[in-house]
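[Help] Beginner question about ligand-bound structures

Sorry if this is basic. My supervisor gave me a protein sequence and a SMILES string for adenosine-5'-triphosphate and asked me to "get the holo structure". I don't really know what that means in practice or what format the answer should be in. Inputs are pasted below exactly as I got them.
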Amino acid sequence: MQIARNTSGARIVLDGVTKTYHNQPIAAVENFSMTVEPGELIMFVGPSGCGKTTTMKMINRIIEPTSGSISIDGRDVLSLDPNELRRHIGYVIQQIGLFPHMTIAENVAVVPRLLGWSKAKTTERVEELLATVELEPSEFAGRYPKQLSGGQQQRVGVARALAADPPVMLMDEPFGATDPITREKLQAEFLRLQESLGKTIIFVTHDFDEAVRLGDRIAVLSNRSQIEQFDTPANILTSPANDYVASFIGHGAAIKRLVLIPVTEAKLGPVGQSAGGPITVSVDDSLRDALDSLVLTGLPALTVVDRSERPVGSISVDRISAVLGAEVPIAPVARRSAGTGQGA
Ligand SMILES: Nc1ncnc2c1ncn2[C@@H]1O[C@H](COP(=O)(O)OP(=O)(O)OP(=O)(O)O)[C@@H](O)[C@H]1O
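Answer (accepted):
No worries, everyone starts somewhere. Holo just means with the ligand present. The predicted complex, written as structure tokens, is below.
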């Protein structure tokens, strides 16, 4: 496998990892092995209770494995001091876990403080990170968590996890508690961020659509964290390994594939066919983005614009359907534009 993107991430290797909780007759995770390449964004998808979170939490040793080995860039995680280890692994959870009595700036500065950074360096980093997650520092740094919306709090959670520039990020349903529109916004923002950061990320989700939208590779898990398929979203959607994976994808495989197909794969209509107006679709968007915008606006066609905002054509539901009917090869969409994507 080739990782083309600029990466600052680390390789994670789990080998034969098993976790049996105290007094439990059955293992929560059994003999789990996986190699994650530097800079990969790996999605763990599976039903409630299948062991996703347990598997992930063993990487930063919030949960200790019963047996097996885990290494990050060749270093045995189980031989490191757990507190030291956790300072080098960013961790974002659904409940966010911001400290209510601390300001946003203080929340983001928690790890730099633990690492003994100077005040000046910490302040500079906090401002940089808040700007990165699109929260204007002058407006938000001094506020308290309860003075922010759920989506804004979640961004602070991401900024805090990134503070010490960790090579590895673990994300447990980070956008799960947000409404669908905020969630899509946070996902898009997060993809843009990852494009430049290139962290190695393990991301747990219930939501198969989220996995398709975000993941470089998806691990579809069943009970005891058994890996039913570990492959790119495109390969899983087009060739599910077994009935379990197929049932997980559900009936909407064709619609889900739209996320992976750029708008430019459609035969665009003439510019004049759309009503014009402020809502446009970019050549960097996916057909799924285009479909969402069409549904949202209720318009029969929308204008497609290039990166300089110049109209290049129009897109309609019929033209999107035609692409699915034509079984075009799935090409990487804009989120892979900084690199050439990756083969499985
Ligand atoms: N502390 C614990 N003690 C005993 N059993 C546990 C403990 N934590 C989790 N389990 C069990 O281990 C199994 C895996 O749980 P885990 O939280 O890893 O699943 P999950 O796939 O992340 O679920 P969800 O999507 O609901 O969060 C479940 O059967 C759960 O009941």
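A couple of things worth pointing out: The two ends are 6 Å apart (CA to CA). The longest strand covers residues 12-19. Feel free to follow up in the thread.
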